[in-house]
């Protein structure tokens, strides 16, 4: 699981049937994780741009978003209310 900041969103009008109705957000991992790539994560909990979130990846992402048969590799599973020294 990683901590990141939501920096944008992605719109996809055509996608796999079991992804219809879901929102996708661009998440930038916090610098201390030393991960250079941004992540596109499915968002079932309503995170907004500028919020810090917890992101599950791999098979945990499918479980975390409640769509076990969807092609999901990253899912926002929590919004941080408080965090110290994140950046």
UniProtKB/TrEMBL annotation:
SUPFAM superfamilies: EutN/CcmL-like. Keywords: Bacterial microcompartment, Carboxysome. One of its GO terms (cellular component) is carboxysome. It comes from the Bacteria. Its main location: other. It is found in: Carboxysome. InterPro entries: EutN_CcmL, EutN_CcmL_sf. Pfam families: EutN_CcmL. The keyword Chloroplast does not apply. The keyword rRNA-binding does not apply. This is Ethanolamine utilization protein EutN.
